[in-house]
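hey can u check if this looks right to u? its 234 residues, i copy pasted from the old doc so theres a chance i mangled smth
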Amino acid sequence: MIRALLFDFGQTLVDSAEGFRAAEKEAERAVFEFLGDVSWEDFLDAYRRLRKELHGRSNFSRQDLFRGVCQSAGREPETERLVQWENRYWERVRAATRLFPETLAVLSALRPKYRLGMITNTQGQRPSVMHRLREVPALPDFFEVIVVAGEAGVPPKPDPLPFRACLERMGLRPEEAAYVGDDWRIDVLGARGAGMRAIWLRHESVRRNWPDVDADAPVITRLDALLSVDRLLK
């Protein structure tokens, strides 16, 4: 019996897709202009290859990405420049972060029936800063437990430890909770690795190349579908 629903944050409860696109374009241009003596095509190839490699290791630090791209071109940017690029990146993302239209109504309807928790990965900024959840003050009160994975010695998702930490703090067994997230590898496979059921949200308003996988998990396109979660997971 499902007693609790646990959620991812970005692209699950809030939409930051346009912010990420704008932030990436601005960051690419800033780093490219700093390098100065590489072709745009070679630069983009290195940038996107390293970004994919870091994301595959659940490393979301923009400083690591920017430094690595510069080093691949034989340049070593000063720390102040890296911090400036990274801060500007997350300012762009935060400025364009919006709740999905149905988020608050769905959470309000679920809370009387289910215990609610959140497990979200850190943004990867150094020194550590408060997660951008702070920019959405209407959300935290809905959740009994919020785990920011990737901080305080807790590894980032899809490692099973943050999922288990949330369950332990809520006094739940894995089979008593389902996890809702937008990322197949990080959220769906991560939750399964901790013994939980998973629901894959591919929100209809998000423009994205979803991975081509045999999704043997419930797939929803709006959060409203969670109002019939028992039917989804039967």
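The two ends are 10 Å apart (CA to CA).
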